Amino acid sequence: MFYVRYLRNELVRRRARTILTALGLGLGVALVIVIAGVSSGLDKAQKKTLNPLAGIGTDLTVTLAPQTQDTGGFNGGGGGGANRDLVQANLSVVTDLSKLGKAGTHFVHDFFLPGSQLTFKQSATSQIASIPGVAKVSQGLTLLAEHQEGVVPKIVATLKTQAKTFQIQRNIPRPTAAQFAQMQACFAKQAAKSGSSGSGTTTTPNSGSGGFGGGGGGSGFGGVNRGAFSKCLPASMQRLRTRFTAPSQTLKQVLDPPQTNIKTSAYTIGGVDPTDPTMGVVTTAQVTKGKFLSPTSTHQALVSQTYAAKYSLKVGSKLNLNGTSFTIVGLVSPPLGGQSADVYLPLKQLQTLANEKGLANVVLVRATSGKNVSQVKQAIQAALPNAQVASSKDVADKITGSLVNASNLSHDLGLVLEIIAAVSAFLLAALLALSSIGKRVRELGTLKALGWTQRMVVRQVAGESLAQGLLGGIFGIILGVVVCLVIGAFGPSLSASSTTGGGNLLGLGAETARTATSSISLSAPIGVTVLAIGFGLALLGGLVAGTAGALRAARLRPADALRTVE
Amino acid sequence: MEPLYTLRGVTKLFQRGPTTVRALDGIDLEIQPGEFVALEGPSGSGKTTLLQLLGALDRPTAGDVLFEGTDLVGLPDHELAGLRLRSFGFVFQQFNLIPTLTAVENVEVKLVPVGGDRARALQMLDEVGLAARADHLPAHLSGGEQQRVAIARALSVEPRVVLADEPTGNLDSATGAEIIDLLAKLAAEHGSTIIVATHDSSLAARAPQRLRMRDGKLVDVPAAVS
């Protein structure tokens, strides 16, 4: 077909112009595809990360808020003031070096602290479950863990104490009347045994002299044998003379704050009910590798992707927590929010490890319908005045980080950028087409002089532009896809963080603050729709350019066209 | 016999900035079919304007241009395009070949819209002695060769009239003479009337009929040959 050959010749033999136009359109299309891809990537990441509660099958989370004044109501773990409990619970991390073992031995120990969320009893969970509008509840335990590892320092000294003799001197209490009578009888008996050793053997002691002083013994019963006499004393008077000796002791003691190589690292640990994989502090939906805890699991664990990456953990790796070994069965990408953790164990195991048997510190609540979430929230707050009830929005609002920024940017600017990219590409293509027509006035005039109708000329010019649009579209799609793949492969990592707890909590802020960070590698998924739109845009750009050129060409009068001399 | 062209009081005005240029000033003319007419005159005398009116490339400001009895002034654009396609052939001073098309494709530009094919285009190139250069781009052809391609293009549809505007203007005199001879010979073979505008009176002298123009008017019109 001659017209097609002509078109092809125009494109091939005016290569520079063709390439420039296709490049311009292609870049515009690529930009639109990449922006759309990144935008949808961000949307996906956001949906996953910034809608934290939906991901774990929950509408509300209920935690016990530490109060400045203990108002009772929602019973804290120990029953005392909630704050005092919190301080005490969190102070239990103080390491007693003397109890770690022999100096020079390596030790590993994990301490589990409730962080800013106090634990509460099962009854609270049942109470929430009974509130109308609540479809389902699930309890979880998220704790702050301090992992300590190091060598027991040698500064634990051993001291040997000297043996010591204690001597006690005390006044002997006066005997009672009964004792006195007994003693008298005894003395009389002794005196009789010793014969006529004294004149006053039959004489009764002077009843008027109440004192039975120490000195009286010698003068009053001078003639009586001392050993036999002492037998007449009551038992309590004899015991007072007993001597005792303190044994030699060996004491171990920390002499000074010792310099050690003990490293402390903090992480968060969550207890999940493995029997319900759809609702809990982490659910099957967040498993990115491996699988969820099996319903009967006891020694299985899940770790977050970020934590796994940080400590090179894989599915199958072992975690040793205070002597209990847990096998990592899956990696999870937990949703951000108050309840995300680095490590997840079956709830019962964590309760045992942390000495929190039967206790939880978060109740996840699913409402019967999305409409009555706020109503349920109010009901829970009324029933449990100390409870902190958070909805998805409350949690999402606390999330910050580059993902949020990028996502906001993409929301605010994405469409605008796309329009700018597309319009720029169109304008470029149109300008190039117009300038091309300007340079081809004589050629187009000649065609008209030769008898080509308006329609044929316009068709040819528009066809060229459309073909350029086609090329631009193909080029743009290739470029866009490549850039999207490159972004997916080497894309910047976006992070989203959510900090809960902390604040002005009796100086415990820093310790109880729990920052969960989710790192998401930016990806730019390419949808067929986006590609089709990109391609359509390129064709449209070509058409716009073609129409602009064709309109100009159509307005040429053949005579004027021929008069223009190059 | 009906004249090929009948022009009555044809006037053409151009607006060039603030001044109005009277390119043609009341031309009355008849041209019979089969003639070889030379249109002489200095630059700016109105030769090109007259050729454009004869070739239906433009419309007069006033007057009538009748082609075989039909007034071109009243015809819509697409009918004028049809006339240009089938009845007229143009040869230009600048050759006006499409730079991206080969010699044979440049002939096809004219042929294809009327259903002609490549074979016919090659045949026409053969007639102008360029069969061997059919696949060359204009840029690779000499001026004389380019003009031959233009002549092959103009004559490919067997037009009623070939309108040549300074066809030798960009050629040396020897080539120019060859071109005029070729044009005259082929026009005769294809039964076309040929009207050549030129400022070169030696070339004009080769034409059996000469029209002389000055300031938009025909001067010294030789007696019409019937």
Walkthrough of the structure:
The complex is a heterodimer of chains A (566) and B (226). Chain A has helices spanning 2-13, 15-49, 52-55, 82-91, 122-129, 177-193, 216-220, 226-230, 235-239, 305-310, 347-353, 373-383, 392-397, 402-439, 441-449, 454-490, 509-512, 528-555, 558-563; strands at 60-64, 106-113, 120-121, 134-151, 156-160, 164-166, 244-246, 250-254, 263-272, 287-290, 300-304, 318-321, 324-332, 343-346, 359-360, 362-367, 387-391, 399-400, 493-500, 514-521. In chain A, helix 2 (15-49) packs across helix 16 and helix 2 runs antiparallel to helix 18. Residues 68-82, 196-222 and 501-512 of chain A have low confidence and may be disordered. With 566 residues, chain A is α+β, with helices and mostly antiparallel strands. Helix content of chain A is 45%, strand content 20%. With 226 residues, chain B is of the alpha/beta class. Chain B has a single domain (36-58, 84-219), classed as P-loop containing nucleotide triphosphate hydrolases (Rossmann fold). Chain B has helices at 47-54, 77-86, 103-111, 118-127, 143-155, 173-190, 201-204, and strands spanning 5-16, 19-31, 36-40, 62-67, 70-71, 88-91, 161-165, 193-198, 209-214, 217-219. Chain B has a six-stranded mixed sheet with strand order 6-7-8-3-9-10, with helices on both faces. Chain B starts with a strand and ends in a 7-residue tail after the last strand. Chain A binds chain B through residues 2-3, 5-6, 9-10, 12-14, 442-443, 445-454, 456, 557-559, 562-563, 565-566, and chain B through 48, 52, 55, 57-58, 77-78, 81-86, 88, 90, 92, 94, 96-101, 105, 108-110, 112-113, 137, 153.
Structural class of chain B: alpha/beta
Helix content of chain B: 25-40%
Q: How helical, in percent, are the residues of chain A? A: 40-55%
- β-strand percent of chain B reads 25-35%
Distance between the amino and carboxyl termini of chain A: 30 Å
Tally of distinct domains of chain B: 1
Estimated radius of gyration of chain B? 17 Å
The stretches of 5 or more residues of chain A where confidence is low (pLDDT under 50) are 68-82, 196-222, 501-512
Using the coordinates shown, work out and report the CATH topology of chain B. Rossmann fold
Name the CATH superfamily assignment of chain B: P-loop containing nucleotide triphosphate hydrolases
Shape of chain B: globular
Total count of strands of chain B:
10
How many strands, which pairing sense, and closed or not: the largest β-sheet of chain B?
6 strands, mixed
Determine the number of helices of chain B (DSSP H or I, runs of at least 4 residues). 7
Low-pLDDT residue intervals, each spanning 5 or more residues of chain B: none
Largest sheet of chain A: 11 strands, mixed
Protein chains sharing the most extensive interface: A-B, 29 and 31 residues
In which order are the strands of the major sheet of chain B placed?
Answer: 6-7-8-3-9-10
